[in-house]
Amino acid sequence: xxxxxxxxxxxxxxxxxxxxxxxxxxxxxxxxxxxxxxxxxxxxxxxxxxxxxxxxxxxxxxxxxxxxxxxxxxxxxxxxxxxxxxxxxxxxxxxxxxxxxxxxxxxxxxxxxxxxxxxxxxxxxxxxxxxxxxxxxxxxxxxxxxxxxxxxxxxxxxxxxxxxxxxxxxxxxxxxxxxxxxxxxxxxxxxxxxxxxxxxxxxxxxxxxxxxxxxxxxxxxxxxxxxxxxxxxxxxxxxxxxxxxxxxxxxxxxxxxxxxxxxxxxxxxxxxxxxxxxxxxxxxxxxxxxxxxxxxxxxxxxxxxxxxxxxxxxxxxxxxxxxxxxxxxxxxxxxxxxxxxxxxxxxxxxxxxxxxxxxxxxxxxxxxxxxxxxxxxxxxxxxxxxxxxxxxxxxxxxxxxxxxxxxxxxxxxxxxxxxxxxxxxxxxxxxxxxxxxxxxxxxxxxxxxxxxxxxxxxxxxxxxxxxxxxxxxxxxxxxxxxxxxxxxxxxxxxxxxxxxx
Length: 501
Ligand SMILES: Cc1ncc(COP(=O)(O)O)c(C=O)c1O
Prior knowledge:
Oligomer: single chain
Bound molecules: pyridoxal-5'-phosphate
Number of strands: 15
Strand order of the largest sheet: 4-10-9-8-7-5-6
């Protein structure tokens, strides 16, 4: 048997080694049944039953508890079509898409214009990377994104999603400070219970311990500061502003504790998703800007969800009046019709790359794919033509007022959010704000609520990464009738859940 040393040196020199794959791993697929491929070859349609079986046999779904699918009654929901703010499953059941599928389909489903834009782009230039080259839809989309963005931002680095854009922000921050003669600045602050993505870097930025546990050790050098959970802070502070100032000052405390010479950036969502749509008053962002400027710490606004009208302005930083040094965008950019993400950066961060042999050694094969860029441009045309951001701004108070009616239910502790992005926090005792423990929360959310809402045809998120919440983020096209429909369905489900607990 090869010793470790000889094996390493053989591998290094490319010499064939004696190691073989273990028995049973080779050609395992050779005699597998392929009913879907057979149907395709025969020119026939796969039946719903065949699809269900093939999904169970072959797929490994994201963030999914698979065990229920292997029980007698367990079925993977298979979604077959979508139109406007509805989608249908393969049994023909219709659902209200109360969370824009994954906080993404901002213009609603079924817009054929985007399909045509994708087809046109594929026929003209199917693909070319943004590695030392550019293409027309990418150039046009860069200009377009910057036209909506805070004026200090002047460059666009494309990715394929939000997590990659957060990775990019952290790497760029590290390189920037190295090039500026501050090589020890590398740490990043993020907020507790924040979700910033799943790759090792983005997961390190994420503040949800249960998501990280299985992947430790992660990338070191990230630190958590408090989020702006005003509902749970109310007893300790006279006003929300006073509390927000306290929360912002924790950023300074952490920078000082970690040493300003080592801290590169603070990454946060202006309206924070995980934990349930935490907003903050303007004073929070003003104070954070002041602190970060004082210690030369970059501000990265992660608007993966917040962006593209979700919170009532094109980008959330606009309504809070602050200019981030970097802005993370994704989801709503194409309304999820094609994958894309972007990091918008201030010119000062691009400055060092204008001279000499300097490069940012970072990129993605599909970052800024021309088809996705073309789809994004068409999506943004629809945003402008239909004034979707204006629709949210005009209707957000009515949406809130409709959801606020649910406060008469004993289980509803808080209703919070902005624009078309709302969370309803569920409590055991309204007066004391006592929350459900882990076991109760499991029963409430997974055992009762998510099933009941799905049965009633409302797709939204019930989540307990923080305290238990139901979240809504519908397409930006809806109005009063749909707000009422959502409220009515939720009312019934929440009432039933309360009685069953
Ligand atoms: C705030 C935030 N950041 C980052 C991400 C990760 O984005 P992606 O899944 O596109 O990598 C998400 C995803 O939901 C998000 O909500």
